[in-house]
Amino acid sequence: MKQKLRVGVLGATGMVGQRYVSLLANHPFFEVTCVAASPKSAGQSYREAVANRWRMEARLDEAIGQLPVLDASDVEAVAKEVDFVFSAVNMAKEDVQKLELAYAKHDIPVISNNSAHRWTNDVPMIIPEINPQHAKIIDCQRKHLHVKKGFIAVKPNCSIQSYTPALAAWQQFEPTQVVATTYQAISGAGKTFKEWPEMQGNIIPYIAGEEEKSETEPLKILGYLDEKEQSIKPATSPLITTQCLRVPVLYGHTAACFINFKQKPTKEALVEALINYQGPVDLTDLPSAPKHFIQYLTEDDRPQVRLDVAYEKGMGVSIGRLRPDKLFDWKFIGLSHNTARGAAGGAIECAELLVKLGYLTK
């Protein structure tokens, strides 16, 4: 880009907010010009606000560290500093909805990591490699909001990223039923082992709201844009049921999946569909897009978090152990990075896509 877009990060002091800040340092499309958080952090420099809780592997960018932290609820003050914002605020769902809507109505586009607007009819929930065509609903949303540039777009839940890409690659075989158990990293709860020592050597078989999201969000991703009704219509199949467990891993969500198909594909056909998968839009010019979205691993003990979670800098998805099942047609293991592909990285790639499609501008 000739001139970078000015971007703000709402909820910048939290774990996902810090991941945004880390990934956006020296980004070719975007420049962080505003960091915002709760009133408790407002008024400090960003470096001061995260001094004792910077959780990223990379060092804090010097220029971003010097930015003053603004109050995320002060829409007018933030709007003066940015062309659009990433939202990673930690608030009640109703409060997130109101805040993001306030920015959109102020003509500031919002790319959200939150779940608050994922089921708003005219809000696209995008994985760029799978459903970039859903971005067109933004035109309808702008009409509803009576704005020229503002809108809300969201990325889906982190837990679905480890198996939904496989479902997208296998659409030609008409998947009908999916059982998925996800083993989710503690960073998905915004925690480290230092902050959550009781997770070491432990498994918690409950993550609030996670199973409902994991069963329904893939259907919106695989759905279609109904321009007449100006909404995204979810797919009616496959029927998905899930269990979601928190496990003692820092980064990486693993899914153990069982799947039935209307068609009866061979293993060779399924593997070929994975490794040759191409989405509807060429994303090779997007800085965050992986060169190869899905890798298939042939080893019996892969994918593994330690070996594979950083595939394509955390933006790729790893599939392995595809084999016949006694009750279902096939079963497999999926792995994705929950704060790269599943959170900030996925939202940044979504923003890059929206620049490409002309929805994000100066």
TrEMBL record:
Transmembrane segments: none annotated. It comes from the Bacteria. Keywords: NADP, Oxidoreductase. InterPro entries: ASADH-related (IPR051823), Asp_semi-ald_DH_pep-lack (IPR005676), NAD(P)-bd_dom_sf (IPR036291), Semialdehyde_DH_NAD-bd (IPR000534), Semialdhyde_DH_dimer_dom (IPR012280). Belongs to the aspartate-semialdehyde dehydrogenase family. This is Aspartate-semialdehyde dehydrogenase. PANTHER family: ASPARTATE-SEMIALDEHYDE DEHYDROGENASE. Residues 6-138 form the Semialdehyde dehydrogenase NAD-binding domain. The lineage of its organism: Bacteria, Bacillati, Bacillota, Bacilli, Lactobacillales. It holds the Pfam family Semialdhyde_dh. Gene3D superfamilies: Dihydrodipicolinate Reductase, domain 2 (3.30.360.10), NAD(P)-binding Rossmann-like Domain (3.40.50.720).
